[in-house]
């Protein structure tokens, strides 16, 4: 569940790449390595307008760090959701979650810059705010080596663009992006709660995990989400100021995934 500690420029591989991720999940099979998936993508012409080198880079720099770093368990879960007819908007929020987990620079930008702007009712998110964030990170030793001015500007653009790809902002790349209403979808909350639970976290740690902050939720608001899931029969939560106890209904992520797909068709 932890993010990489050092900030990198890896977002340059393709930002959010929602459609590309959907294509790769359809192509990927359990047991496929990143190299094998890249070979399949090139052979199938999955990215018809991309060179073979570009296709391999998409898999190695984007797909693998996000979905294959846990021996493919995440890719397997998302593939099951996709093949079971899960809503694309639900999947998009989960792709956002995994992108932030893989790239701590993006996770921190969302929690430290985007959500404060959102809470302050700011209308836009600017490249200048992204550059200021990157410069603060450099001063705080978040990068392994000092970035050039060109790299600072490029990565700032990647951060803004990634927010747009996942629906946190909208607008033209040539202007400041408009901050849009971004609310965690119930199926994403259900998936995340069980994902954290099956990672071995205590009930209290589940509700306090930093992943929820990516969606603008503090622990008290997470409890509210849990109560909604409890009302729908997915779990049972009992919470006081000092204690959180959750009775979990599902005994595997496969059961949770079935619940997610059944939930959306009810």
Multimeric state of these chains? Answer: single chain
- Structural shape: globular
Helix-residue proportion: 55-70%
- The CATH architecture name of the largest domain reads Orthogonal Bundle
What report would you give on this structure?
This protein is mainly alpha-helical. The protein folds into 3 domains: 10-82, no CATH class; 104-179; 186-265, Arc Repressor Mutant, subunit A. It has helices at residues 18-27, 34-44, 52-67, 73-83, 88-102, 104-119, 127-139, 149-165, 186-198, 203-208, 219-231, 253-265; strands spanning 124-125, 169-170, 177-179, 235-239, 244-248. It has a 3-stranded antiparallel sheet. A hairpin with a 4-residue loop joins β4 (235-239) and β5. α2 packs across α3, α5 crosses α6 (104-119) and α7 (127-139) crosses α8 (149-165). It is globular and about 50 Å long. The two termini are 31 Å apart. The relative contact order is 0.12.
Element layout with pairings:
Blueprint: H1 18-27, H2 34-44, H3 52-67, H4 73-83, H5 88-102, H6 104-119, E1 124-125, H7 127-139, H8 149-165, E2 169-170, E3 177-179, H9 186-198, H10 203-208, H11 219-231, E4 235-239, E5 244-248, H12 253-265
Antiparallel strand pairs: 1-3, 2-3, 4-5
Could you list some keywords that capture this structure?
single chain; 266 residues; mainly alpha; Arc Repressor Mutant, subunit A; 3 domains; 3-stranded antiparallel beta sheet; two-stranded antiparallel sheet; 12 helices; 58% helix
Summed up:
By secondary structure, this protein is mainly α. 58% of the residues lie in helices and 6% in strands.
